[in-house]
Amino acid sequence: MGARNASGAGAGPNSYPVLFTAHSLPERIRQSGDTYPAQLEESAQLVAAAAGVDRWQVAWQSAGRTPEAWLGPDVREVVRQLADAGDVRGVVVCPIGFVTDHLEVLYEPRYRAAAVAADVGLTLTVPHR
Q1: pTM attached to this predicted model
Q2: What is d(CA 125, CA 118) in angstroms, rounded to the nearest whole number?
Q3: Are 1 and 75 in contact (CB under 8 A)?
Q4: What is the pLDDT of residue 5?
Q5: Which helix or strand (DSSP H or E) is residue 60 part of?
C-alpha cells in the first residue's frame, strides 16, 4: 500500500502526511482471502477524503515476533522512508484499525514510532480520541 498524492513539500499540509495504522497480522491471511488489508485501505481512503487529507498511507504496527512474514510496511519503516525522501517536516499517525485505545495502541506510535521520528528529525503527532 503506497503513499497517495505524495507530492508537496514545504510547510503546507502535504509536508505532514497521515499514516493510518492497524495491527499487523501474518501475511498468510491474504492467501486465505481475508479482507482485512483491503478493508483497512478503504477505511483510510474514506477518512482521508472526508478530512481533506491528500497525502496519506496505510502502515502496520505491532507485528508479532514470529519467523513468518507479517503485513507491512511497519509504521517505523515508513517514518524512516518519509524522512529519507526529504520532503516532509513531520508525520501524523492515526491508529484507524483500533476501536479503543489500549496499551498496545498507545505504545507503538507514541513511543516506538516517535523515537524513530525523533532520530530522523521529524515531528510525530498522534491525535487524541
Answers
A1: 0.78
A2: 11
A3: no
A4: 40
A5: strand 56-61
Cα 97 vs. chain centroid, distance in angstroms? 10
Distance CA 50, CA 82 (A): 23
Q: Residue 122, Cβ neighbours under 10 Å: how many?
A: 19
Residue pair 120/83 in contact (Cβ under 8 Å)? The answer is: yes
Q: Is the alpha carbon torsion for 67, 95, 82, 58 positive or negative?
A: positive
Distances, alpha carbon 40 to alpha carbons 45, 63, 86, 124, in Å: 9, 16, 27, 21
| Cβ atoms within 10 Å, residue 34 | 13
Residue 63 pairs in a beta bridge with: none
* Order of strands, sheet of 56-61, starting from the edge strand that comes earlier in the sequence: 56-61, 18-23, 90-94, 123-125
* pLDDT(52) > 60: yes
**CA distance linking residue 24 with residue 69, whole number of Å:** 10
